[in-house]
From TrEMBL:
One of its GO terms (biological process) is L-amino acid transport. The keyword Iron does not apply. Belongs to the ABC transporter superfamily. The keyword Repeat does not apply. SMART domains: AAA (SM00382). This is Amino acid/amide ABC transporter ATP-binding protein 2 (HAAT family). It comes from Nocardia tenerifensis. Keywords: Amino-acid transport, ATP-binding, Nucleotide-binding, Transport. Residues 7-239 form the ABC transporter domain. Pfam families: ABC_tran (PF00005). GO terms for molecular function: ATP binding; ATP hydrolysis activity; branched-chain amino acid transmembrane transporter activity.
Length: 241
């Protein structure tokens, strides 16, 4: 793997009970890149993110900035700067927007750091400041996704894991979310791994991509190369160039 690699995954295997889902995945992501994970339903994309954030105990090796993360619990991953936005958003719907965000900043010891985190989130998602006292469950789907990403940003993550951020959202809202994610990546240097069914949009906003099929990486390369390859697009990604 490259000496510049920030995240290095080696022979990663994971599953649920006796069912193995991931079969020896190896790849690396450089610091400050956006990496797209693509593939059909059931390919193992969400399991990969769960293994990277500690929700699923993997075999193999996961190293982040030279630290061994293999087998660490989710709270330990969060302390090391790994933030996971799960499919379905995972907001606490009975709580207010403010309460959700402050929960995201739980690891900050100083009140000033929490307040700075809130201001930073509102800079990306002004609508959340307008709805600060409203219950999360009353927000639109797009606003709930903004809240989920905002809560993850309260951790000040070094690695942001996004699982299907466009799920159930309109094309316009999806485009705006991806624009904000790219801004976070470019302005803050946050490394991002995004699992996304909308392969075309994911590739437009990523530096590199890996295509999964039945728990194995079948294709890797720069996002631009994969996006431009008509055979790849038809065979693996479900669209025409």
């Amino acid at each position: 793997m490259s000496e510049e690699s920030f995240l290095v995954v080696t022979e990663l295997r994971a599953g649920y009970g006796g069912a193995q889902v991931l079969h020896g995945l190896s790849f690396a992501v450089r610091r400050g890149e956006v990496c797209a994970i693509l593939g059909a339903n059931g390919a193992g994309k969400s399991t990969l993110l769960r293994a990277l954030c500690g929700m699923v105990r993997p075999r193999g090796a996961v190293r982040l900035d030279c630290a061994d993360l293999t087998g660490r619990a989710p709270e330990a991953m969060a302390r090391l700067g790994v933030a996971h936005v799960p499919e379905g958003r995972g907001t606490f719907t009975p709580l207010t927007v403010e309460e959700n965000l402050r929960l995201g900043g739980y690891r900050h010891r100083r009140r000033a750091d929490v307040e700075a985190g809130l201001r930073r989130v509102f800079g990306y998602f002004p609508v959340l400041e307008d709805k600060l006292r409203e219950q999360a469950g009353s927000l639109s789907g797009g606003q709930q996704q903004m809240l989920a990403i905002g809560r993850a940003l309260m951790l000040t993550p070094r690695l942001l894991l996004l699982d299907e951020p466009s799920l159930g959202l309109s094309p316009l809202v999806t485009q705006e979310l991806f624009r904000i994610v790219r801004t976070i990546n470019e302005e803050e240097g946050t490394t991002v791994i995004v699992v996304e069914q909308n392969a075309h949009l994911a590739l437009e906003n990523a530096h590199q991509a890996h295509v999964l099929e039945t728990g194995r990486i079948v294709l890797s390369g720069s996002a631009a190369e994969i996006k431009a390859d008509e055979q790849v697009a038809r065979s693996y990604l479900g669209y025409r160039v």
